[in-house]
Specification:
- The complex is a heterodimer of chains A (about 500) and B (about 120).
- By secondary structure, chain A is mainly α.
- Chain A has 20 helices and two strands.
- Chain A has a domain at about 275-490.
- In chain A, about 75% of the residues lie in helices and about 5% in strands.
- In chain B, about 65% of the residues lie in helices and about 0% in strands.
- The chains are: A mainly alpha (about 500), B mainly alpha (about 120).
- The interface of A and B includes residues 1, 2, 4, 23 and 30 of A.
């Protein structure tokens, strides 16, 4: 009889609490009348906050869970500083997601309690992704995070754009899952194991095998799809535009964090020996993502589509941090820079999407960039916040985006990839054009924008703007946390 | 070692070729006289009724999904029941967790009226 190990449960405690909470919320929501759906939102937020508390209580502890009997090095899940940091960031994403969604769903007439339950399930998948130390668990987590997102994309059932987004995301997502699964199969064929630590051991003694490299490349393709890297980005603009705006905000941040966490965990702990083959691929992916994302964003007139392309471009910037992953001297610093940038992007991004939600009207109205004309005169605070977010996305001081880009470029330069850094700087300059167009519209043109007064939405926007500015003045503590978290992985 | 399978490979090729020859000869030399009755879709010898692509109530789909869910639950029960003694309390707890999760889905579907055939 296999013993019941309480240490295993301790490793996954926040995740288990979140899943139980989500299941109970699904049931409780059935008995909440349609008029009082605010209660569901409140309970979801409370569950996320509770889980966040348990996650932070794990700070500093390190252990493995669900290990093979008699072999403590082969484990299914792992708890370390990295997973705690990523989980905390994911739960923050969830809280922001709930705050943005509540008023929006009511205003658009699509208020249903399942929204929050699906979001909790998706976050639990993302958290499992950050803790997975076996390829099978990576795959399981990927499905757990993706399936609720497919449903959420099609959440505005009566809107045909939303339906299209859901179907497209589902079909292409299933396709990319196939890539990952095939990659896992090849890696298993080459090494005889799906455990990341075992793969690393076997790959480091033998000569490099072609099968293993192809397997790793296929896993990269699948995860590249999840984080929307060029050339696997085709679904992104359509899905991000069609999905209800709070879902898009949640996807751009949450799915990206989880995807990058898996990328880092899998490649950093299982495939560092393949870096000779993988690094050029990552270099090309990162360069192509920055160039294509930024250039295509220029042509957009719809703000959701523009921010979708901007999210592709930022994937490229974050990918820069992964290029030197095989170099043990640069990797810790560059990955800390990547994590810091993910935090900066999450905060800025939620703020920017929050402003989009504030201005969106029924039937997809109020989403053109020209609809932002005259925002300064009617709503100066909202326009000011949007300006902060746009500056942060460009990388202008004094914002978090600028500090993030500084750390990123510094890490990439110290890894010796000057070409990539130059591409990054030039594309950032290009991006100033389309971000500033929004600012110019708000400040220089006349118009009559409309918004509704929603407390939690305003609160989120103001908070995000404040954090973007204040933390950019004192970023050292945050960066130190990110670097401490990463060092334990290697 | 692979040579041991040669006979099977020969059989596969032979079977394919023979089948293709039979169909090909029939198509080459057989008489083709099309009548209205012959080109009708075959429906067990009866006269076909209505269009070929018929509309189905979406409820079939819903029932199908729910059926698969609980069918798979039973599929998981069976191997557990066989090794029940070896797994002991551990297996029992795991199964209770599994059933509890499915039960949540069941209650949800029930309360939402997915089980009512109206």
């Amino acid at each position: 009889m296999p013993p019941i190990n309480f240490n295993d449960i301790e490793v996954l405690l926040p995740l288990i609490i979140l899943v139980i909470w989500a299941c109970l919320l699904l049931l409780v929501d059935l008995f909440i009348p349609k008029k009082h759906k605010w209660l569901t939102a409140l309970l979801a937020a409370f569950g996320l906050a509770l889980t966040l508390g348990f996650t932070l209580s794990q700070l500093g502890s390190e252990s493995n869970g669900f290990c093979a009997t008699g072999k403590p090095s082969i484990c299914m899940v792992v708890l370390d500083g990295f997973s705690v940091l990523v989980n905390a960031l994911l739960l923050l994403t969830g809280l922001l997601g709930v705050a943005l969604a509540y008023g929006y769903l009511k205003r658009m007439g699509i208020e249903r309690g399942e929204y929050y339950t699906l979001m909790l399930f998706s976050i639990s998948g993302m958290m499992l992704m950050a803790q997975a130390s076996d390829l099978i668990i990576v795959f399981l987590a990927l499905e757990l995070l993706s399936l609720p997102l497919y449903v959420l994309s099609a959440f505005a059932r009566s809107n045909s754009d939303s339906q299209e987004a859901g179907l497209k995301y589902f079909l292409l997502g299933a396709f990319s899952s196939g890539f990952i699964l095939y990659g896992i199969a090849l890696v298993y064929g080459a090494t005889g194991s799906t455990s990341l630590s075992q793969i690393f051991e076997i790959a480091s003694v033998g000569t490099s095998s072609l099968l293993l490299t192809i397997g790793a490349a296929l896993i990269l393709v699948g995860l590249g799809f999840k984080v929307a890297a060029v050339p696997f980005h085709m679904w992104t603009p359509d899905v991000y535009q069609g999905a209800p705006t709070p879902v898009t905000a949640f996807m751009t941040a949450g799915a990206k964090i989880a995807g990058f966490a898996a990328l880092l965990r899998v490649f950093g702990s299982a495939f560092p020996n393949l870096s000779e083959d993988i690094t050029p691929i990552l270099w090309a992916l990162s360069a192509a993502t920055m160039i294509v994302g930024n250039l295509l964003a220029i042509a957009q007139t719809n703000i959701k589509r523009m921010l979708a392309y901007s999210s592709i471009a930022h994937t490229g910037y974050i990918l820069m941090a992964f290029v030197p992953y095989g170099n043990p001297e640069v990797a810790p610093v560059s990955i800390a820079a990547g994590l810091f940038y993910l935090f900066a992007y999450t905060i800025t991004n939620f703020g920017a999407w929050g402003v989009v939600i504030a201005l969106e009207q029924k039937e997809s109205k109020g989403l053109q960039i020209s609809d932002y004309a005259g925002l300064r005169r009617k709503y100066p605070v909202l326009a000011g916040a949007m300006t902060v977010f746009m500056f942060s996305l460009i990388g202008f001081p004094p914002t978090l985006g600028m500090v993030g880009k500084f750390y990123l470029f510094r890490a990439v330069l110290s890894g010796g990839y000057t070409g990539l850094a130059i591409i990054g700087v030039v594309t950032s300059l290009v991006s100033a054009f389309y971000y500033l167009r929004v600012v110019v519209n708000m400040y220089m043109f006349a118009g009559e924008p409309k918004t509704d007064n929603e407390f939690w939405l305003r609160f989120t926007i103001a908070g995000a703007a404040l954090v973007t500015v204040v933390f950019s003045l004192v970023p050292q503590g945050l960066f130190a946390w990110a670097s401490r978290a990463v060092l334990k992985l290697f | 070692m692979l040579l041991e399978y040669l006979a099977i490979a020969v059989l596969i090729v032979l079977a394919t070729v023979v089948a293709l020859i039979a169909i090909g000869l029939g198509g080459l030399f057989g008489p083709k006289k099309k009548t209205v009755n012959k080109s009708m879709p075959y429906e067990s010898g009866m006269m076909p009724i209505g269009p070929g692509t018929r509309r189905m109530p979406v409820r079939y789909y819903l029932i199908g999904v729910l059926f698969i869910l609980f069918d798979i639950e039973v599929v998981f029960f069976l191997p557990w029941a066989i090794v029940f003694r070896q797994l002991g309390w551990f297996g029992l707890i795991e199964m209770v967790v599994f059933v509890a999760i499915l039960l949540v889905g069941y209650v949800y579907a029930w309360k939402k009226g997915a089980l009512e055939w109206e």
